[in-house]
Every structure is written in structure tokens, then in C-alpha cells.
Amino acid sequence: LLITGDEEGPSVNGTKKMLDWLKDKGEKIDFCLVGEPTSSEKLGDMMKIGRRGSLNGHIGVTGVQGHVAYPQRADNPVPKLIKLLAVLDALELDKGTAHFQPSNLEIVTVDVGNPADNVIPARAEAKFNIRFNDAHTGAGLQKLLKDALDATGIAYDLKFRLSGESFYTPPGAYSELLQQAIKSVTGREAELSTTGGTSDARFIRSHCPVIEFGIVGLTMHKVDERVAVSDMHALTEIYSQVLKAWFSR
Predict the structure, then answer these.
(1) Are 202 and 36 spatial neighbours (Cβ–Cβ below 8 Å)?
(2) pLDDT for 199-243, tens place per residue?
């Protein structure tokens, strides 16, 4: 039983180090059930048998600071960054695959740090994130983006951070065992899905088959994040039935 640590941050500790420790000890994992909040509207309506990968990008353009009344003495990086972001925003990465929805690139911040309205800034930066399906790898996406940006002829700097590759656990004995327990407790047929964000399953998938199932996530990352107490009791019973079925095989 691993209580996840560092999943939302840089992800250098927690699950990654535990998996390395297990590997060094020669311990083998047969199957992993991650308690991510996968239920969509009601407990038991959805489980995750795969996830898209996540690639973060930080792009910047450096210019020459100056007075707005003398643009010939400056080099404004903002219009250049806007053009680069327009290229990224216009990319159609794919139309989806057999098991995944289309990949999407979202620009999440644009920063200049300029408090004055009469100064051309020296630098402009932006961050973006791509959630990508199994049509891509992190390395392949990085090359695709660089090629598109290079074609503009604008000088820029770009850093990437890969949070995880996409993965998929084909339906079978593991998903059926979980579906049976869910139906026994809730009466619902759990949908097998690959939608949504990512979790520590992105690390575990290299060690064993992994499926995610947990509470309803309607208020995830919101103010007053909450779940129904009755759902927690039902979830406990589902996990209990999964363990009993697993060890009685």
C-alpha cells in the first residue's frame, strides 16, 4: 500500500523512488490499482485503463527594452511571441486514436512582467501543456514543435519537461475483476476510459498492468473540494471485494 507523495509536483520522490527501491530488491508487482478519483458523475460509472501523456513547454523571446515613443531603438519581443504562440495554437496534432481522444495543446500562461505602459519590455515568456495520445512520444512531439517554430524564422528559446508518456492497459482479467466488484456494490457498469489528466499510474505502467478507480471527482481542485461520505463507504467495500477476489483466485 503506497500513499502517494509528490504526484502533483516535480514527481522526483514518492512513487518513482518506491518503484526503484522495489526493482533493486527484486520485488515484482503483478497488478496495481490506483485510487485516483475516476468516477465522473456517480461512483462506479468510470474507471481508467489508460492515460494520455503530458508534455510541458516554456518558450521565451528576448528583445531590447526601450521607450514606446522610440520603437526604432528597441526590439519588442511581445509580437514575436504572439506569432510563435499562434503557430503552436494552430497545430492539429492528431484526430484521436483507437483508444484515446485527440491530443490537445493548451497555452496556460503568457508573462511579460512589465508594470509600465510606456516601456517596451526586454523579454516575453509563455508556458503550454500538451496532453498527447499513443500517436506520439514525448521526444517526437518535441521535434514536431521545434520544426514548426523554426519555420517562422523568429529567434526563441524553449525548454521541455515530460511528465509522462501515454499508456494503455488492454481490457481483460484485471478490468473484469474490478467491474464485477463495482457492479456488486453500486449496480453500475463501469465505463473503460482513457480520458482526463494523469497520475502516478504513468510510472507504475512500466512495472505492471495498472488500472485507476476511485471516488467522484466533480469538485477536483476547486474551492470546497468534497466527496459524499456514503461514496467513501461504498468505495471501501469495492476495494475489499477486489482484494478478496484477487487472493481467492
Answers:
(1) no
(2) 889 899 999 999 999 999 999 889 999 999 999 999 999 999 999
Residue 39 dihedral angles phi and psi, to the nearest 5°: -65, 140
Q: Looking at residue 177, what is its pLDDT? A: 96
What confidence tier does 196 reach under pLDDT thresholds 50, 70, 90?
A: confident
Q: Which of these, 65, 86, 61, 62, lies nearest to 74 by C-alpha position?
A: 65
